[in-house]
Amino acid sequence: MPPVVNRPLTTAQVILDQAGLAYRVRYRTSNQPSGIVIGTEPRAGALVPEGAVVVLVVSSPGSSPERPTPTPTPEPTPTS
């Protein structure tokens, strides 16, 4: 398995295509920029049997903790 962690998904796909490896993409929430390979199954350096499918784990934007959206308060209008 070639080392593709910390590379953009498109770069990792080219590397795996050139190595003749089939792959599947799985997305996981991460603090890394979206679209970066954050892991592989198997790990880099592992021997991959012919015909095996490797998994690219790719970062997707994390959701920020939910905070209630404040409701705007109407400004008082002066009365004459």
Task: Quickly describe the structure.
By secondary structure, the chain is of the alpha+beta class. Helix content is 14%, strand content 29%.
Helix content: 10-25%
Averaged pLDDT: 84
> Which shape, going by the Cα principal axes?
rod-shaped
> Can you count the helices?
1
Overall CATH class of the domain at 9-61: Alpha Beta
Helix/sheet category: alpha+beta
Distance between the termini: 78 Å
CATH domain fold name of the domain at 9-61: Trypsin Inhibitor V, Chain A
Q: How many β strands by DSSP?
A: 3
Q: What low-confidence regions span 5 or more consecutive residues with pLDDT below 50?
A: 64-68
Biggest sheet, open or closed, and with what strands and sense? 3 strands, mixed
CATH architecture of the domain at 9-61: 2-Layer Sandwich
Would you kindly provide a written description of the structure presented here, covering whatever features stand out?
- This protein is of the alpha+beta class and 80 residues long.
- The chain has a domain at 9-61: 2-Layer Sandwich (Trypsin Inhibitor V, Chain A), CATH 3.30.10.20.
- Helices cover 14% and strands 29% of the residues.
- It has one helix at residues 9-19; strands spanning 22-30, 37-41, 53-61.
- Mean pLDDT is 84; it is low at 64-68.
